[in-house]
Amino acid sequence: MQNKIDHIAIGCKDLDSGADAMETILDVAVPLGGKHAAMSTHNRVMQAGNESFFELISIDPEAPEPGRVRWFSLDDANTQRRLNERPRALTWVVNTSDLDAVVAGSPVDLGDVVDFARGDRTWRLTVPEDGSLPGEGLLPAFIEWSPGPHPSTGQQDLGIRLKTVRLSHPEPEQLVSLLKALNIDHLAEVVKGEPGLSFVLKTPNGTVELD
């Protein structure tokens, strides 16, 4: 089984203000991406190195209600309160070659495996039915793409590179054990502290950390 970081997701209250904030922090304008009809969200995306990408995501105000709870806790009142303050690191997504095996072997509930499609590309993603984030946001969603080039290869490269996914936990050994069970302990740095997720990025103007 091959697991690698697929993308990182930064949530915002709306894409325009989120893009403005990211341009101030990263000194690049995150290009427009697309819409997720099944979740009534939309995004901006760009390459983040090593066939991964940076996603800025928000609820799409022009889309109808999705008929289910949105992914990545975007409907959660606490998440919305935090995103009203500023864009936040929402979650990280791991690309796997065998999603069914990951779900079957996971010691925690990763959610349902949901099918998505855009154009001629399809993917399968773990999404908890209640829209929550596994492990209080520290554990990733898992994705399996249909055959073909990774989507990042068609995105703009503006010089942003993901250096580290950083996870903070009051009992780091416990979290590391869980990551090992999921075969993803090599993909993140775990430090002691209050529960938290952040992304360390290399930008044209230096290194920044988004939390």
Concise account of the structure shown:
This protein has 211 residues and is of the alpha+beta class. It has four helices and twelve strands, in the order βαβββαβαββββαβββ. Strand 11 and strand 12 form a beta hairpin.
- What's the CATH architecture? Roll
CATH class category? Alpha Beta
Beta-strand fraction estimate:
35-45%
- Count of spatially separate domains: 1
How many E strands?
Answer: 12
Strand adjacency order, main sheet? 2-3-4-1-5-8-7-6
Give the averaged pLDDT, no decimals.
96
Helix fraction bin: 10-25%
What gross morphology would you assign?
globular
Question: What's the main sheet like?
Answer: 8 strands, mixed
Our count of helices gives 4
What is the CATH topology classification name?
2,3-Dihydroxybiphenyl 1,2-Dioxygenase, domain 1
Order of helices and strands: EHEEEHEHEEEEHEEE
Poorly predicted sequence stretches spanning 5 or more consecutive residues: none
Radius of gyration: 16 Å
Class per helix and strand makeup: alpha+beta
- CATH homologous superfamily classification: 2,3-Dihydroxybiphenyl 1,2-Dioxygenase, domain 1
Task: Explain this structure.
By secondary structure, the chain is of the alpha+beta class. The chain has one domain: 2,3-Dihydroxybiphenyl 1,2-Dioxygenase, domain 1. 18% of the residues lie in helices and 39% in strands. The chain has four helices and twelve strands; from the N terminus they run E-H-E-E-E-H-E-H-E-E-E-E-H-E-E-E. The chain has helices at 15-26, 77-85, 99-105, 172-181, and strands at residues 3-11, 32-36, 41-47, 53-59, 88-96, 112-118, 121-127, 141-145, 161-169, 189-192, 196-203, 206-210. The strands form two sheets. Strands 2-3-4-1-5-8-7-6 form an eight-stranded mixed sheet. A four-stranded mixed sheet has the order 10-9-11-12. The longest helix has 12 residues, at 15-26. The two termini are 29 Å apart. The model has no long low-confidence stretch (mean pLDDT 96).
